[in-house]
């Protein structure tokens, strides 16, 4: 395992580049497909509906999360969905903070659940472990792969004797943002044909597609229409793995969420920041930095960690299906990855900084303190930590982190350049995944 690439793995979305531009460069937008259809990312006021705020009790904090459509969250605390008069970070924070400060954390929990958005009060790890949800999950395994009811004969791997150990495995991916696309990205790295299905009517973060869609084909299907469902069912009939979405029979199904799969909150929506606040990670991170307030990690570590666990459960399910037949259900969560970090133990940001600002500052600090992670290694005669492909769909060079693990006798490399969501024409598995030499 390459330790330096493993370090970069935890925040590779921030390292990715299009034509030399990272997410922090405004010029990158000209290459991206605009999937931020509700301006949850591009409007700074609406973006700050996903941040941590102090409640009526000064020792209690609540992490709002407007997801990718923040109007309901802003309305919940008495604010309009859009405020064209608020454009500066400080003014936006003060406007939202003044409203959140009128509520206790418990009141915000009740309000948040009524609008069914992500959001959670900030727990210490001890308080989380003592909660009903914590007690239901603290002894659960980090991930599960369970055999589903019913029987079917063993389904052997389609291609034997190849260094690309998942060659011929077909993966349908119904995903967004970071965690779930990481599962498919890793499976593609080992040779699987991964088809990511998105809908132009469902929002997604544009830049995360640069890194998350490496090695995949991407199509647009509206599952709410009869034609869309028919196309999906045709693809599903020949698939081996389904990441999220529906749970059919005779398949390896990988299910990722935020709050875990046991306990009273298992159906609540959530994101990496929510898992950090729930499990006590944000409190512990603040203490580590010498602060009395919680601080959400500026890097999406839990997203990539849970994505890696999802790829593990998919691989276990495929192996068990080949050996014993049947269908298998992999279960992973952001919460369980954070609990794994607590079990391993522990080795000048303010809580009011949003994730975009804090991640940019963290990346700048990493580049200053650990420049060897980011400089070209060719001058040292060593293999680069990143690789560059020309993407016809982005119309530019795309730079991403190379695979982390090197397994003797196994080839884990990408065969396709990244692309935006919905870039490929919908066709049969064979036609969409025919071998191409160019960086399509």
TrEMBL record:
The keyword DNA-binding does not apply. Gene3D superfamilies: Crotonobetainyl-coa:carnitine coa-transferase, domain 1 (3.40.50.10540). The keyword Transferase applies. It comes from the Eukaryota. GO terms for molecular function: transferase activity. Keywords: Transferase. InterPro entries: CoA-trans_III_biosynth/detox, CoA-Trfase_fam_III, CoA-Trfase_III_dom_1_sf. Belongs to the CoA-transferase III family. PANTHER family: ALPHA METHYLACYL-COA RACEMASE-RELATED (PTHR48229:SF1), CAIB/BAIF FAMILY ENZYME (AFU_ORTHOLOGUE AFUA_1G05360)-RELATED (PTHR48229). This is CoA-transferase family III.
């Amino acid at each position: 395992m390459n330790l330096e690439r493993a370090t970069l793995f935890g925040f590779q979305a921030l390292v990715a580049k299009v034509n030399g531009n990272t997410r922090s460069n405004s010029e990158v937008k000209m290459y991206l497909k605009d999937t931020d259809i509700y301006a949850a990312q591009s409007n700074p006021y609406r973006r700050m509906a996903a941040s941590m705020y102090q409640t009526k009790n000064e020792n209690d904090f609540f992490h709002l999360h407007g997801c990718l459509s923040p109007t309901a969250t802003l309305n919940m605390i008495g604010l309009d969905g859009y405020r064209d008069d608020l454009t500066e970070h400080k003014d936006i924070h003060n406007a939202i903070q003044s409203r959140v400060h009128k509520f206790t954390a418990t009141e915000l929990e009740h309000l948040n659940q009524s609008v069914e958005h992500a959001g959670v009060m900030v727990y210490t790890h001890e308080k989380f472990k003592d909660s009903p949800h914590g007690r239901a999950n603290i002894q659960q395994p980090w991930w599960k792969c369970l055999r589903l009811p019913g029987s079917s004969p063993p389904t052997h791997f389609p291609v034997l004797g190849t260094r690309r150990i998942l060659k011929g495995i077909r993966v349908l991916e119904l995903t967004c943002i970071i965690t779930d696309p990481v599962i498919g990205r890793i499976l593609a790295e080992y040779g699987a044909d991964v088809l990511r299905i998105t809908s132009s009517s469902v929002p997604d973060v544009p830049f995360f597609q640069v890194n998350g869609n490496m090695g995949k084909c991407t199509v647009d299907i509206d599952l709410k229409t009869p034609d869309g469902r028919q196309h999906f069912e045709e693809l599903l009939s020949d698939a081996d793995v389904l990441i999220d979405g529906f749970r059919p029979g005779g398949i390896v199904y990988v299910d990722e969420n935020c709050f875990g799969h046991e306990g009273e909150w298992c159906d609540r929506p959530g994101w990496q920041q929510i898992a950090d606040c729930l499990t006590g990670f944000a409190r512990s991170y603040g203490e580590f930095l010498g602060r009395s307030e919680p601080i959400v990690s500026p890097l999406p570590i839990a997203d990539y960690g849970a994505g890696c666990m999802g790829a593990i459960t998919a691989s276990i399910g495929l192996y068990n299906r080949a050996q014993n037949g049947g269908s298998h259900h992999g279960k992973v969560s952001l919460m369980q990855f954070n609990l794994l970090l607590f079990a391993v133990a522990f080795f000048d940001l303010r809580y009011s900084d949003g994730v975009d600002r804090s991640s940019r500052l963290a990346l700048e600090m990493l580049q200053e303190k650990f420049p060897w992670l980011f400089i070209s290694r060719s001058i040292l005669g060593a293999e680069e930590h990143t690789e560059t492909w020309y993407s016809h769909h982005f119309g530019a060079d795309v730079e991403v982190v190379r695979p982390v693990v090197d397994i003797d006798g196994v080839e884990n490399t990408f065969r396709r350049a990244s692309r935006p969501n919905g870039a490929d024409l919908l066709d049969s598995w064979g036609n969409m995944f025919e071998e191409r030499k160019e960086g399509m």
